[in-house]
Design goal:
Two copies of one chain form a homodimer. By secondary structure, the first copy, chain A, is an alpha/beta fold. Chain A has three domains: 68 residues, 434 Repressor (Amino-terminal Domain) (Orthogonal Bundle), CATH 1.10.260; 139 residues, Response regulator (Rossmann fold, 3-Layer(aba) Sandwich), CATH 3.40.50.2300; 130 residues, Rossmann fold (3-Layer(aba) Sandwich), CATH 3.40.50. Helices cover 42% and strands 14% of the residues of chain A. In chain A, β1, α5 and β2 form a beta-alpha-beta unit. Chains A and B meet through α4, α5, β2, α6 and α7 of A and α4, α5, β2, α6 and α7 of B. The structure holds a DNA duplex. Chains A, B: It comes from Kribbella steppae. Chains A, B: This is LacI family transcriptional regulator. Chains A, B: Keywords: DNA-binding, Transcription, Transcription regulation. Chains A, B: It holds the Pfam family LacI.
Chain lengths: 366, 366
DNA sequence: ATGAAAGCGCTAACAA
DNA sequence: TTGTTAGCGCTTTCAT
């Protein structure tokens, strides 16, 4: 049991404040246990037979030295790191936060770490971050939320999907449309069109015919999907789609407020507002209230996402519930699943259900 | 210009979908530029003289090969990674999200990456995560939000502060009290006591004398600080502190709702409620409304944090504004600042200002 | 079942 | 100014 290096104890129990000695390495554990580094590595990986006695000694040394493997050394030696990178536009969006929470929860449960990056909705920045995450050898990169659609962007993202896959990693698209078929990425989504169709139908069923649609950026996939559902519902009810009833802004309270305020000056040519997100809808409420109008007597309002806020607005807002947390959890599960590394992995597409939650923000028109 | 390895181009321009070849390494760049690896490393680090011509060739090769340094190799070679780890209880808390956003923004601006971990308010998990982040060689670890106070916990965290510092990293406490003096950690905070004092004084000045305080966990530092301010204000106004007017729960809407509901059954012995967070206050509103009572005519309500929600509640809620985003930004700045690595770094404590935002949720009592 | 040794990509001390 | 070389801590053949 030769010992070239002095084993470094993690705590000398002296209780005195001192700089902790540098952390124990695998080599230290090996020395301490009287085995070779390879053996320690083997018991750690558990992918190779090790004698009972050796294993026990190693385990004991690990405990005593308070050993924790160095992730970087591992990564360098070629092992995929158990970190899942997720990138979103802004952590402050409640629905994003919900999804992020789902990812984080599930990742933690599986013993994975989370890297996070935000893009402020900037496509270039998003691409840059995904590249960065690839260099970090993230085990998977999860993209949360829609994007403003664009061809060259899609092309670059597709390229990244392939390159991630080649590196043993995986691109997970969460809450946004798939790339072209055959591209090796997992897609976890919900149906924007369907939910929008359902809630618009609900409004129409209450007798409304002029419904103002407040969307995000014009080419934003989420906004687009919701607009389509809105439009299809009109169609079903035999109401002609009026482009002048569609406004584009961004997914913030301020934007919802401004857009509404603008439409409220002059003749009012709508009886209801469908805000593409609940956060925007909060701005609609504010503008309507400020104009001295009442919800829903003067104007009905519906949103999308069903975040907690929907219950705090007065009157409580009717909205489309999206299982964001579940979305995130699923993404993490897929990311952590080794299955996608198989040569013949067929790709994966999951679509979660949404449903309308009816509250008190839509008046019946007779 | 010998070339043992075939230089690997990043893009063959063929436009066809193919697995990207494995990424170029520093060695590839060296070969391509006809210099030694050391030279490449030098131009990258910029900490050593390199001839103009060599530098230019290297830079060009880097561009052509699309080279990006491997973080893990760097970390292993002993360089601090430019990643700032931040750990908080739950990304879904709006004020946390705000702070997280601040950290993320500033970090990105400085070219740093963010690692995130959540604890669900569990101290053990928090310690475990901080240890993990240390193993990840994070350049700094930022702890956001209060914790339930406990001696042994403080001791372990102190130990971690030293060990982080020894590893060239830094512990940043954000929105929580300092550890013992002399402990090498940065503290970025705001004054919970002061803000609570101010808003309670405001309520008292409106004539209220029986104010229900709804706090979080009993030993939670944030809750504690706010309770102290509440208590001092009572004292200033010559009102005796009544322990039966203090309830403890957790910082969620549901908790605020339940606590209020409980206090609303039977004789009502308070005219105002001070919820320790806005999110809890939303629950208070809900319970009060549900009991058929009116805010502020029957019951006045104030919160703390001044998140966006405060403006969406009706009537709009009076609250204490906390510059969370600024808090996060400051934390990131401090974390990224090399200054703290100096041997004689004196430690750092920043305290941000809060202020009361008066809205419509407090009635004047005469 | 176990150990020796090479190598992952980078940095830094030492030579030249 | 530049190159050579020895690690950083781990995994993984290849021997034994």
């Amino acid at each position: 049991m030769a010992s070239a290096r002095t084993p470094r104890t993690a705590d000398d129990g002296s209780g005195s404040r001192r700089k902790s000695s540098t952390a124990a390495t695998l080599g230290d554990v090996a020395t301490h246990a009287g085995v070779s580094p390879a053996t320690v590595s083997r018991v750690l990986a558990g992918n190779y037979p090790v004698s009972r006695s050796a294993r026990q000694r190693v385990l004991r040394s690990i405990r005593e030295l308070n050993y924790v493997a160095n992730t970087h050394a591992r990564a360098l030696a070629g092992v995929q790191t158990k970190t899942i990178a997720f990138v979103l536009a802004d952590v402050r969006g409640p629905s994003f936060a919900e999804a992020a929470h789902g990812v984080e929860q599930e990742a933690a449960r599986l013993g994975w770490l989370c890297l996070i990056g935000t893009t402020q909705g900037d496509r270039e920045r998003e691409l840059a971050i995904v590249r960065l995450m690839r260099e970090q050898r993230a085990g998977a990169v999860v993209l949360i939320g829609g994007v403003a659609d664009a061809d060259d962007y899609n092309e670059q993202m597709t390229e990244l999907a392939y390159s991630l896959r080649a590196a043993g990693s995986l691109l997970v698209l969460c809450g946004r449309p798939p790339l072209a078929t055959g591209v090796p990425a997992a897609v976890i989504g919900y149906d924007n069109e369907e939910g929008a169709y359902a809630i618009t139908s609900h409004v129409l069923a209450q007798g409304h015919r002029r419904i103002l649609f407040l969307g995000g950026e014009e080419r934003h996939t989420t906004s687009l999907g919701r607009l389509e559902g809105y439009s299809r519902a009109l169609n079903t009810f035999g109401v002609e789609f009026d482009p002048s009833l569609v406004e584009h802004g961004v997914f913030t309270r301020a934007s919802g407020y401004q857009l509404t305020k603008k439409r409220l000056t002059g003749a009012r040519d709508f009886t209801a507002v469908f805000a593409a997100t609940d956060v925007m809808a909060a701005g609609v409420y504010a503008a309507v209230n400020e104009a001295g109008l009442s919800v829903p007597d003067d104007i009905s309002i519906v949103g999308y996402d069903d975040i907690e806020l929907a219950q705090d607005l007065r009157p409580r807002m009717t909205s489309v519930h999206v299982p964001y947390e579940e979305l995130g959890r699923t993404a993490a599960k897929v990311a952590a699943d080794e299955d996608h590394k198989r040569e013949d992995w067929p790709g994966l597409q999951v679509t979660l259900k949404t449903h309308v939650v009816v509250r008190d923000s839509v008046a019946r028109l007779d």
